[in-house]
Design a protein that fits this description.
The complex is a heterodimer of chains A (254) and B (218). Chain A is mainly alpha-helical. Chain A is built from nine helices and four strands. Chain A has one domain. Helices cover 51% and strands 3% of the residues of chain A. With 218 residues, chain B is mainly alpha-helical. Chain B starts with a helix and ends in a 6-residue tail after the last helix. Classes of the chains: A mainly alpha (254), B mainly alpha (218). At the A-B interface, helix 4 and helix 7 of A face helix 1, helix 3, helix 5, helix 8 and helix 9 of B.
C-alpha cells in the first residue's frame, strides 16, 4: 500500500468533491423562478385564454380581472390582480421547510454544503426577526388550501369550452399543475403535524393515525413535489400566456 | 477505510491514535472526516472514493483534538446530561402502563442512534459558531428529546428547554445531520421539524394560544 502519514494543519474545507454544484444549480433555479414570477405577476395581462386561467392569477379576486373568480376587491384596484393572491403561495413556499434548506444553503450560504464553513458570521438561525417568522408556516399552509381549491375549480372549468365540454392540451396542463401543487401542499411538514404529528399516541385516534401515515409517506417526497410543482406552475402560466398572445393554438383532443 | 488506517498504524506509524471497536458501523467509535466528509471509517470503502487522488483522513473538526484521529466528544455528553430523563405517566387502574405498537414504531427510529456524533460534527452551528455552543445542543440531543417527547408514556415537558436551553431555533434545517447519519435516521424530518412544530404550537401560534385558554386542565 502506498500510504504516507502526513499530519495536516486543520483546514476549513477539505472536501474535494463538487460540493458547490448542487447549491449553484439550486440558486440558479430559485432566482430564475422568482424573476419569472415577478415578471408574470406584473404583466397584468395575457393571463386568460378561454377557458384557461393562469395559476399565477388564480383566484382572480379583483373586479377588473379579465376572468373574475370571486369579486372580492372592487374596481379601485388597478394594479395586477396577481399581487392580491401571490403572497399566499409565495409565503407558503418561502417558509416551507424544504425551501428554507434550499435557500439557506444556496443563497445565504449558511452553510453552502455540509462540512463547508458557514458564510454567516453573526449567525442566529431562526431565533430573531425576520427569520423567526418562519414559524408561521402553518398559517400559510392553511391559507394555501382555498387557493388550491380555486386551482382545481379552474382545472374543472378548463373542460368547458365555448362550444361545450371538451379536452384541450391546456386542460391537461392545468389538471397536472393542480395535482402537483396538491401533492406539494399535502406533503408539507405543517400538514403532517396538524394531521397527527402533534399527538404522542395514535391509539384511539385511527383517522388521525391513518392521515399522519399517508402524509408521512408523501412527506418523504416533499422536495421532489416542491421542484416539480414549481416547474409546473411556470409551465402552466407560460402556456396560457402563449395562447393568450396568439403564438400558440391549443390542440383539442376532443 | 478503517482497515487501511489500521494497516498504516501497524506498519508505518505505530503511534497513530485512532478509536475503533466493532468494525461494523454499530459502535460509533471510528467517526472521522474522509476527504473532508464526516463518515464512519469502518463503513467507508476505499474503492468508493475517487481513484488516482490522495485520500485524506482527519479527525472530527468540531471537537477538541486529543491526538491524530481522536477527539474529545464530551460536549455531547454534557448536553445529554441536561435533558430531563423519562418521566412515566401514572399507571392505569390495573397498575400497568400500556404502549401500543403504532406508537412504538414511531419512536423506534430514534433509538437506532449509535452516538457516533457525526451529526453533531457536521452541524454548522456546532462546527462554525463556538459562541453559540452554550445555547445549542445539536441534532443528537434533538433526536433524544424527540424520543422522549413523542413517547406516549412520558409526562415530561421539554419544550421550554428546546426553545431556550437547547436552542432549536438556531437550527436552520439544512439537513446535513440527516445526510451524514450512518443509521439513516431522518433526523431533520422526523425529529427536528416535528419538535419545531411543537415549539411553534406553544410559543408562536396565537390561535393555538387562544384556544388553550379554553382547554380544561386535568
Amino acid at each position: 500500500m502506498d500510504a504516507r502519514v502526513i499530519r495536516l494543519e486543520p483546514h476549513p474545507a477539505q472536501r474535494g468533491d463538487a460540493w458547490w454544484a448542487a447549491p449553484l444549480l439550486t440558486a440558479i433555479a430559485l432566482v430564475a423562478f422568482v424573476a419569472y414570477a415577478v415578471w408574470a405577476a406584473l404583466q397584468n395581462g395575457n393571463y386568460y385564454a378561454a377557458p384557461y386561467l393562469s395559476p399565477f392569477y388564480s383566484p382572480c379576486v379583483a373586479a377588473r380581472c379579465t376572468h373574475v373568480s370571486v369579486p372580492l376587491v372592487g374596481a379601485w384596484w388597478t394594479l395586477s390582480p396577481a399581487l392580491l393572491v401571490l403572497w399566499v403561495p409565495g409565503g407558503f413556499r418561502a417558509s416551507c421547510y424544504y425551501y428554507r434548506k434550499a435557500y439557506y444553503r444556496s443563497l445565504f450560504r449558511s452553510p453552502v454544503a455540509c462540512a463547508v464553513p458557514d458564510a454567516a458570521r453573526d449567525y442566529r438561525g431562526e431565533t430573531r426577526f425576520p427569520l423567526v417568522l418562519q414559524n408561521v408556516h402553518r398559517y400559510f399552509f392553511y391559507l394555501t388550501l382555498p387557493v388550491l381549491a380555486f386551482l382545481w375549480w379552474d382545472a374543472l372549468r378548463a373542460f368547458r369550452f365555448a362550444d361545450g365540454w371538451g379536452l384541450g392540451l391546456g386542460t391537461l396542463v392545468l389538471c397536472a399543475n393542480a395535482a402537483l401543487l396538491t401533492l406539494y401542499c399535502l406533503s408539507c411538514n405543517s400538514c403532517r403535524h396538524a394531521c397527527g404529528g402533534h399527538l404522542d399516541s395514535f391509539h384511539g385516534a385511527p383517522i388521525r393515525s391513518r392521515a399522519w401515515k399517508i402524509v408521512s409517506r408523501l412527506n418523504e417526497k416533499h422536495r421532489e413535489f416542491g421542484w416539480v410543482s414549481l416547474a409546473s406552475v411556470v409551465l402552466a402560466d407560460f402556456y396560457v400566456r402563449l395562447l393568450s398572445v396568439g403564438l400558440l393554438n391549443d390542440p383539442r383532443l376532443f | 477505510m478503517l482497515d487501511a488506517v489500521r494497516e498504516v498504524q501497524a506498519t508505518q506509524a505505530g503511534d497513530l491514535a485512532v478509536r475503533w471497536n466493532c468494525k461494523a458501523g454499530k459502535c460509533g467509535s471510528c467517526s472521522a472526516e474522509v476527504n473532508g466528509i464526516p463518515r464512519l471509517m469502518c463503513m467507508t470503502r476505499l474503492d468508493g472514493l475517487p481513484t488516482g487522488e490522495p485520500v485524506t483522513v482527519g479527525p472530527m473538526r468540531s471537537f477538541p483534538l486529543i491526538r491524530d484521529l481522536v477527539t474529545d466528544v464530551s460536549f455531547n455528553y454534557e448536553k445529554a446530561a441536561g435533558i430531563p430523563s423519562f418521566q412515566p405517566v401514572p399507571a392505569g387502574a390495573d397498575g400497568k402502563r400500556r404502549m401500543y405498537q403504532e406508537d412504538v414504531e414511531r419512536i423506534q427510529e430514534f433509538h437506532r442512534c449509535i452516538e457516533c456524533f457525526l451529526c453533531q460534527n457536521t452541524c454548522h452551528v456546532v462546527r462554525d459558531h463556538a459562541d453559540l455552543r452554550p445555547h445549542y445542543s445539536g441534532p443528537r440531543s434533538f433526536v433524544r428529546i424527540a424520543a422522549l417527547e413523542m413517547h406516549p408514556l412520558d409526562a415530561g415537558d421539554r419544550l421550554p428547554l428546546l426553545k431556550d436551553g437547547a436552542g432549536i431555533g438556531l437550527c436552520n434545517v439544512t439537513k446535513c445531520c440527516t445526510e451524514v447519519c450512518p443509521e439513516q435516521i431522518r433526523i431533520t424530518d422526523n425529529a427536528i421539524i416535528p419538535l419545531k412544530e411543537r415549539v411553534a404550537d406553544r410559543y408562536y401560534d396565537p390561535i393555538a394560544a387562544f384556544l388553550r385558554c379554553f382547554k380544561r386542565t386535568p
